[in-house]
Amino acid sequence: MSSLSERLDGRRVVIVAGSGGVGKTTTSAAIGLGLAAGGQRVCVITIDPAKRLADALGLEELGNEPRRVDPSRFSDHDIEVEGELWAMMLDAKRTFDDLIERLAPDAKTRDEILENRIYQELSSAVAGSQEFTAIAKLYDLDRDGGFDVLILDTPPSRNALDFLDAPDRLTNFFEGRALKVFLAPSGIAAKVVGRGTSVVFSVLRKVTGVDLLDDVSVFFRALSGIMDGFRERASGVKALLGDPATTFLIVSSPQHEPIEEAIHFAGKLREARHRIGALIVNRVDPGVADADPPDAEALAALEEELTAELGAPLARKVARTMADARLLADRDAASIAHLQDALGEAEALLVPQLDDDVHDLEGLTLIHRHLFASDPDRASMMRAAAGLA
To answer: Is there a single domain that holds both residue 349 and residue 306?
Structure first.
């Protein structure tokens, strides 16, 4: 397998996908660090509200605009960042508002939409799904051209499937009959807000002081002024996802559920003809690196030898512990082989289970070293983690 650096050579957009809890955010940050260390200007975008990206980078917080990470933070870990590493945490509502500001033809239309009560409720609901706003932000940053590489840490893969469908769903919404009915100056729309509903709206206005009918009318009138912009945006987003410079990295752990989700998601990517750049498996039992693992006969011989030195009870415990460890390593090896076979990957990038969860720069740099090592060095690091070096 070629190195991760070679696999990402020439890529402008890297989308990191996988099920929840497999280390996507940390992997995204480590990849960003590796590319920035190589001299590129990189921005990592996360939607994770748990601040894992900020913590891993040693930052107090991240906002909705890219923030540069001080390269001196990595000097103590013997990593020289020749390029620039930037990071941001997506604010879905703010991103949706920014999109309206970009697409509105004039200040009056912009203010009518942003200040409209219908929009404020609707935008919170739509932005809360995060899929559309994430890809919209990615598109804007790519079009602005300020970065060599953009890395997007996506939602868990089941939601990431919605993320892939976002451009088509947006286009279908604007071309749908329901919206056309509301925007029509007469006919069914007029009947919808005709005599019967006008009485209801009148009562609501008297009770609440809110002219809901006026809000609905203003909202849809203003919306008609930005529909072409939304359609153009959806088309641009779809083109970006299919661009040869865009690649997907699938991240998993060796457990059954993440493995099956990774296989399912890879199938959906291939159906949509998206490119899979690499397969990364985190939290692997380092024992998979043992090319000559002990069999039952070897374990029995070890127990007999230890019995003479340590006594039978302790020897049995040591032998049992080694057998359990071998069982876990074999389980991980079988899961990885199943994943590679299903995805047609000759080899996955393996990152061993670390002693602690990655929550700081030290853990991040360890992940970075495993991901960007050469194949021989990565294998050596895995053997060292297993105590085989």
So the answer is: no
pLDDT tens-digit series, residues 156-199: 655 566 667 766 666 666 565 555 555 555 444 444 444 444 44
With CA atoms as reference, report the closest residue to 251 among 174, 343, 131. 343
Own/partner pairs, 333-337, CB within 8 angstroms, 24+ separation: 333/288, 335/254, 335/255, 335/256, 335/259, 336/254, 336/281, 336/284, 336/288
Say yes or no: 341 and 301 in one domain.
Answer: no
Average of per-residue pLDDT across 352-365: 79
Among all chains, which residue has been given the structure tokens 């990152």? 351
Sequence-distant (6+) residues with CB within 8 A of 84 are 36, 40, 41, 42, 68, 71
CATH number, domain containing residue 162 = 3.40.50.300
Per residue in 271-308, pLDDT tens?
888 999 999 999 998 888 776 666 667 667 766 776 77
Q: Look at residues 72, 14, 73, 75 and name the one whose alpha carbon lies nearest to residue 46.
A: 14
Token pair listed for 65? 């605009």
Give the three-state DSSP class for 47: coil
| Shared domain check, 312 and 285 | no
Phi, psi of 315 (to 5 degrees): -65, -40
273, 166 contact by CB (below 8 A): no
Q: What are phi and psi of 147, to 5 degrees?
A: -130, 150
Instruction: Output the CA torsion sign for 246, 252, 258, 262.
Output: positive
Neighbour order of strands in the sheet with 246-252: 67-68, 84-89, 41-46, 149-156, 13-18, 246-252, 276-284, 349-352
Give every CB contact of residue 156 below 8 A, 6+ residues apart in sequence: 18, 19, 20, 261
Let me know if residue 187 belongs to a domain.
no
90 shares its domain with 30: yes
Sign of CA dihedral 110, 111, 114, 117: negative
Domain membership flag for residue 277 = yes
How many whole angstroms from its chain centre is CA 170? Answer: 21
Structural domain boundaries enclosing 23: 4-168+230-290+333-385
Asked if residue 198 is part of any domain, the answer here is no
